[in-house]
Amino acid sequence: MLRPLFLPLVGCLGFLAAPLAGARPLPLEGPLALENNDLVVLLGDTLIERDGNYGHLETALTAAYAGKNIKFRNLGWSGDTPRCESRSYFGPPAEGFERLKTLLANLKPTVVICSYGAVDAWKGQAGHADFLAAYGKLLDMVKESTGGAGVVLVGPPATQTLPPPFPDLTTHNQDVASTGKAIAAFAKERGLRYGDLYGAMTGLKVDSSNGVTFTESGYAAIAPAFLKALQVPAAPAPAPGGLRGLVQQKNQLFFYRWRPQNEIYLFGSRKHEQGNNASEVQLFEPLVAEKDAAIQTLLGKK
Asked: d(Cα 152, Cα 83) in Å, to the nearest integer?
């Protein structure tokens, strides 16, 4: 049973950010209205997690809301689904689900931007019902654990067909589009805002390693489409030099805080060996806060 592995860790995550007031529903249309001091969680699969490394999507959002002291936290997990299958480590998806629930309860974001569907799109239309049922359970949990944060659903990105020997993804891309439409209808039923990333990427050529996993330059190309899907006007001036570097550094520190290596030794069944080092994980918190402050200082110098 994996529960002892992560519950002590996430129980400490309340120190990551103080609960923020002002969680609210978001208008379904018009520019995404983020407010002063919002804490925005980026939640989803590979698209979200790997931006934690590259920082292009978050940097575009950060620059667009300069002056509002908005903080972003990346809780993406590669290959994940609304069932939290990738987050479960060695146990069942239910444990990954509970892990995420505790993280969100401690972070208390005011806005959650969710991007799921890329994995389930491989199942085609036959998988829509199961996918959306799982998505509904996830969103119910997000609402409960955050106290009613505003939620945006972003559809999966378009895939890219590469020359042979890579497979032709034309048919799969149709399944991605179909999955996005299903999410849009689902969002409408639940009264949630939807961002059509697939549509925003129409005609866009994006570098990828296999047609599905985007490279750093691919993320740079996707960033304007990501803003377009959210109806966020791009910053009137280029982001200040060094902003993406600070975003990347902050994301790395936060990653170490909520996904430290060797958790089983720090918090789990082998903590009798190295559990005395567990307290050091909390030392990342002030480092993350310093990067948040540096980001806002740099934005103020534009």
From this structure: 18
Q: How far is CA 176 from CA 50, 182, 197, 200, 275, in A?
A: 19, 10, 11, 13, 44
| CA-closest candidate to residue 118, choices 87, 82, 88 | 82
pTM equals: 0.89
Domain spans in the chain, listed from the N-terminal domain onward: 3-300
Residues 76, 115: Cα–Cα separation, whole Å: 9
- What pLDDT does residue 207 have? 95
Cα 131 to chain centroid distance, Å, stands at 18
Backbone CA torsion sign across 212, 87, 73, 254: negative
Statement: 3-300 belongs to CATH 2.40.290.10: no
> In the β-sheet with 111-115, what is the strand arrangement from edge to edge?
71-74, 39-44, 111-115, 150-154, 193-195
Question: Which regions in the chain score pLDDT beneath 50?
Answer: 1-23, 265-266, 275
pLDDT of residue 15: 41
Rg (alpha carbons) of the chain, rounded to whole number:
19
The C-alpha atoms of residue 283 and residue 51 are separated, in whole angstroms, by 24
What does 141-167 look like in DSSP terms, one character per residue?
HHHHHHTS-EEEEEPPPPP-PPSTTSP
